[in-house]
């Protein structure tokens, strides 16, 4: 690595997905060598479920994007790869949707502000106005539009779509946004919208999961970050956490206890997305930590 | 407490359940004082769901059972209490049902043998013969009867009922017994049969939960110990544990990983039962740790 | 309890500590009955280490403080009790000390603001100015005084003492305040100052615990909230949490990972303190959850 | 991969360690291609602390060991690698040392017997006779020699050395063996002896860690599996687990609670060792899970 020290170089993150077969790693690493790269992080996975091979690399190299792409192009073609190439640490343009609860929004904004979350948040959209000051404190534009009927809901979603295009949004985060997205919007955002559900899915889908959890008497409650799909609470799971509770907790206390798990689970999922660590293998996620 | 030191005394565990109202603790503690007792452990819970009050006490006293019962009788009558009085540490007569997997049976027998589980196991019944040697090593009688059809299943259950009476069984433990109990047997054993389910209920009820968990791509797998009811996998939950897994685990590996959680979760539930720490509040359990 | 419903009543929290002996619970519950109280929560502990008995009660009663104190006075005298009587949910006046890191301060302020932490924070004092805006957003006064030498440190501590008296402070929270308090200040604040140490004590005392943790190659890192004493990092432990890490994490990453544990551990400790749930038994804490 | 299906092939595990530099992965994967191998699992790590590069591969190939070694030889020479090549799943010859506590020994033997731990245990040596029956049940030879003085300790250790040679032992497991090994024996077994310490190291080194933990009032207790070195309780840490406890637990209860963590932590460490997943980077371990 010393040989690289004197040359200015970039830090790339590369994800490649293709049908599994022998020789892939050799071919890919050959292209990296050709692009004068040094692999600083590497994870791979061969899926027995789908027969696909997944690899994520971080590579330091003096090569620019054109040179790197040129080196990888024959390999990508030969192995029929789906490839993404990005710069490590580039902030991902993220639209946040919220309602009245502020714990997830606060957690995302604080981490972003502290440099712990590589996202850029050009806008927070909410169907309540209660988070205006908090969002404003972090210098992020905030718009709220009450949702009271089908028309106002459609208008809200139209504004979402507009904002996605206006700000070239790469990720939409539902930070305890309490309205169900329309199937059309779910489809349009597929693979780039993350929701936090306040239960340990697949237990307690739908509304009032903490009330359900209390009624069922579970001993652990949890939170699940997952990709949004039109099949409610059924999207690919990204991250889950649980916390122990006992019989003495009423539903309101479960809500309070669960908020910590919601915040950290959602922020973790967003971080992994922003770092290109999440790949999809059918209905399952591969997380390259 | 020094005043008690010279007198031989007993260690009692007392559970009382009644409609909640002011004055219960004072009345109960008065009876304990009357029975020359010292409270060494005490937990109580007032259920907002059912309006019932639950208290569990451990009491050291030179009084014998008759004296203790006499002291408590007026309080029990006055407050319309359901009461149980037992000796701390008395081994609970436990029948174990098993199939071919040995991890839960091994864990129960090892702990019992090591003095860590206050149960007495007069018999293990299985629909497989594979655990004969393991059970025999611990000096516990073992009987196996293959279940191949309705008749052999009925015969097996008849033997269970017979054994329960023959050995005055207080607790039946389904230690990865892989057959569904008949509704009649479930009802007969209600409140005194504990099952270990190999998922984090209410997720993944029914068969092959690890296969379901793999398909759904959950990030934590778990185990649930619960009372057996005729409503499959819906009985009151006693204890749950989870362990983190990632995308690289296939269903067979999930099975192996989950076994540790199954063993410890079941043994914990059995220990609490044997220590009279589990009370029922509708469909929920109260665990007085 | 219905009989109480029509009368306006208070919710009291009572802590009592005394030498252990039979009859305490009966005497205390008798006083509660006399004060027309209903016990809604109760925990007790008899310490084998020190021979002391600890009880914490929550009591609903139409009685005012004078009536309640009058009812308890004979019991307190008879059993030589140390007693505290407070109102459930009363915000505890809390002074926060900070340096440049904002995660703990943000967590405390957000929770306080959201109604999840029963404290009132009249002032944040810091030896850095970097948190001025954050603290200001929550409407809390903020003062910073750089500490560069012995004199400026003494001046800072003099301001702490002054603020404690000025605001009638009940709790001082060191929210990643990175200066060692003088022995005199430690002594003066004994039992009412909580620090968050960024390691799983007693491992890695002193400076740079994450660097130490990396060098030692531990597989879990943690945080410890403890009472401040003049014996550095040796005060009674209130709460601890850990999180799994692996060999790939460098010290800077451990710092980032550990911050979540620091925030939640400190906030938990502050919450328990504010709810009168922490009692001292020699060098150990009793936490009545 | 279908092309390999008709040919009988082996499953190899390869570990390579060398000074870090660009091109290693390409060179290694080239050798794997040359040996007609398919990489089924791969992890790598570049240590910023020591400048060394670590890679572990699992490779399916019709090649025999000679062909595989021939393919790798030039790469190993060129990059100055330390290499180990083994067959996936080969049972590692393991000598177990024990004292009177049986929980770790039981856990190891049960897992080995159940096919969950790829070790072969030709002998258990103990300074107590109490585990004779348990070990015998699993068909493993057992020898006990009381240690009462320096001479009997030296004789015990001489028998350990003899057994290591006699059975060509690759791993020595101290399964709650309660005697300190002599520095000479520690040195002789360096890198191939694993101990379980009953605390969360580096807290509570030395004797009676649970008593120390109680005195210090920690809120989590733990267990640490580590390589044995002559510097007591200072060897490289392999795995750690903790479990929550509260003020009510006395030292004897902590001992009982901690046993579960000890068993699972030690078994996990042994499993990783047997699967060639542990590499040493100075005083730290790299665990390729």
Automatic annotation (TrEMBL), chains A, B, C, D:
Gene3D superfamilies: 3.30.70.260, Formyl transferase, N-terminal domain (3.40.50.170). GO terms for biological process: 'de novo' IMP biosynthetic process; one-carbon metabolic process. PROSITE patterns: ACT. The active site is at residue 233. Pfam families: ACT (PF01842), Formyl_trans_N (PF00551). Residues 13-90 form the ACT domain. Pathway: Purine metabolism; IMP biosynthesis via de novo pathway; formate from 10-formyl-5,6,7,8-tetrahydrofolate: step 1/1. One of its GO terms (molecular function) is formyltetrahydrofolate deformylase activity. It is an enzyme of class 3 (hydrolase). It catalyses: (6R)-10-formyltetrahydrofolate + H2O = (6S)-5,6,7,8-tetrahydrofolate + formate + H(+). Its EC number is 3.5.1.10. It comes from the Bacteria. Keywords: Hydrolase, One-carbon metabolism, Purine biosynthesis. Belongs to the PurU family. PANTHER family: FORMYLTETRAHYDROFOLATE DEFORMYLASE, FORMYLTETRAHYDROFOLATE DEFORMYLASE 2, MITOCHONDRIAL. Catalyzes the hydrolysis of 10-formyltetrahydrofolate (formyl-FH4) to formate and tetrahydrofolate (FH4). This is Formyltetrahydrofolate deformylase. It comes from Cryobacterium tepidiphilum.
